[in-house]
């Protein structure tokens, strides 16, 4: 089925792919290009994140949160009905054993998790579906995109509203923080990729090149250059300095690209698509 999400782990020797409709997680050993583990899941997975060295946490279509051990394939813990409807976004505060989730029910929830249980700590009702979220820990912020087409910033400790950024005309489907936390990139259903200056709360650059909805954006860790992907299956590589197009990858994916992930050393890009392909790219 389509590749909904990807995660690099174990010093980039492995990559985990979430096949939502097939209800499976595949663990790939990249040196051999062989699958080392197949983990069945209980509902169509939508989002996932790495929790510790060998565990992943995921949100599914039925609103449940599940934690799996990647080495054994065993379900470590599960929280059913964590949300009413699909969970679209999930992130973690690994050092504090907290999970942050956002769903189609418009609820932002912070969970405490221990060895064998996960329980609610705080929650906030936003009315509109939450499509993506990021933790901005150094500034005590949670960044959220929803159906409102705004970027919303809430205080992490209290969930109090802090400020918002507005510039897109349709919902934001993906966003990523620069490694120095000064910039945020957003991709929207309005076909625009926008780069925002978080210090001055201004749009630094707007790019409309894909010609279709931007479904995934990510900064390259070593350079700060930007990758964007779209519903038409095209990947673009942009310079951080002048925002010129460095490279365009098209006709490789034959459907919407749902996810882009950069390896920890910044040298490889992984893309996953509705066309059921997982592609690993070497960045020159």
Automatic annotation (TrEMBL):
<dbReference type="GO" id="GO:0032040">
    <property type="term" value="C:small-subunit processome"/>
</dbReference>
<protein>
    <recommendedName>
        <fullName>Anaphase-promoting complex subunit 4 WD40 domain-containing protein</fullName>
    </recommendedName>
</protein>
<feature type="repeat" description="WD">
    <location>
        <begin position="80"/>
        <end position="121"/>
    </location>
</feature>
<dbReference type="InterPro" id="IPR001680">
    <property type="entry name" value="WD40_rpt"/>
</dbReference>
<feature type="repeat" description="WD">
    <location>
        <begin position="165"/>
        <end position="206"/>
    </location>
</feature>
<dbReference type="InterPro" id="IPR020472">
    <property type="entry name" value="WD40_PAC1"/>
</dbReference>
<dbReference type="InterPro" id="IPR019775">
    <property type="entry name" value="WD40_repeat_CS"/>
</dbReference>
<dbReference type="GO" id="GO:0034388">
    <property type="term" value="C:Pwp2p-containing subcomplex of 90S preribosome"/>
</dbReference>
<keyword id="KW-0853">WD repeat</keyword>
<feature type="repeat" description="WD">
    <location>
        <begin position="250"/>
        <end position="284"/>
    </location>
</feature>
<dbReference type="InterPro" id="IPR036322">
    <property type="entry name" value="WD40_repeat_dom_sf"/>
</dbReference>
<dbReference type="GO" id="GO:0030515">
    <property type="term" value="F:snoRNA binding"/>
</dbReference>
<dbReference type="GO" id="GO:0030490">
    <property type="term" value="P:maturation of SSU-rRNA"/>
</dbReference>
<dbReference type="InterPro" id="IPR015943">
    <property type="entry name" value="WD40/YVTN_repeat-like_dom_sf"/>
</dbReference>
<keyword id="KW-0677">Repeat</keyword>
<dbReference type="Pfam" id="PF25172">
    <property type="entry name" value="Beta-prop_WDR3_2nd"/>
</dbReference>
<dbReference type="InterPro" id="IPR051570">
    <property type="entry name" value="TBC1_cilium_biogenesis"/>
</dbReference>
């Amino acid at each position: 089925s389509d590749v909904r999400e990807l995660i690099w782990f174990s010093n980039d020797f492995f990559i985990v792919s979430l096949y939502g409709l097939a209800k499976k997680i595949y663990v790939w050993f990249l040196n051999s290009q062989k699958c080392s583990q197949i983990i069945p899941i209980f509902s169509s997975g939508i989002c996932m994140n790495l929790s510790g060295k060998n565990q992943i946490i995921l949100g599914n279509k039925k609103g449940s949160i599940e934690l799996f051990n990647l080495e054994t394939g065993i379900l470590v813990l599960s929280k059913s009905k964590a949300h009413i409807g699909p969970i679209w976004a999930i992130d973690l505060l690994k050092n504090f054993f907290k999970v942050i989730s956002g769903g189609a029910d418009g609820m932002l929830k912070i969970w405490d998790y221990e060895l064998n249980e996960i329980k609610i700590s705080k929650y906030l009702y936003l009315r509109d579906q939450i499509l993506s979220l990021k933790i901005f820990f150094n500034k005590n912020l949670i960044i959220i995109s929803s159906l409102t087409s705004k970027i919303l910033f809430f205080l992490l400790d209290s969930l109090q509203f802090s400020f918002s950024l507005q510039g897109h005309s349709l919902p934001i489907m993906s966003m990523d923080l620069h490694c120095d936390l000064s910039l945020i990139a957003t991709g929207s259903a309005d076909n625009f990729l926008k780069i925002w200056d978080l210090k001055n709360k201004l749009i630094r650059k707007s790019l409309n090149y894909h010609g279709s909805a931007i479904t995934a954006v990510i900064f390259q860790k070593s350079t700060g250059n930007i990758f964007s992907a779209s519903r038409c299956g095209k990947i673009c590589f942009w310079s951080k300095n002048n925002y010129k197009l460095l490279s365009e990858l098209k006709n490789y994916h034959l459907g919407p690209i749902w996810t882009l992930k950069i390896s920890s050393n910044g040298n490889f890009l992984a893309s996953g698509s509705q066309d059921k392909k997982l592609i690993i790219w070497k960045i020159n």
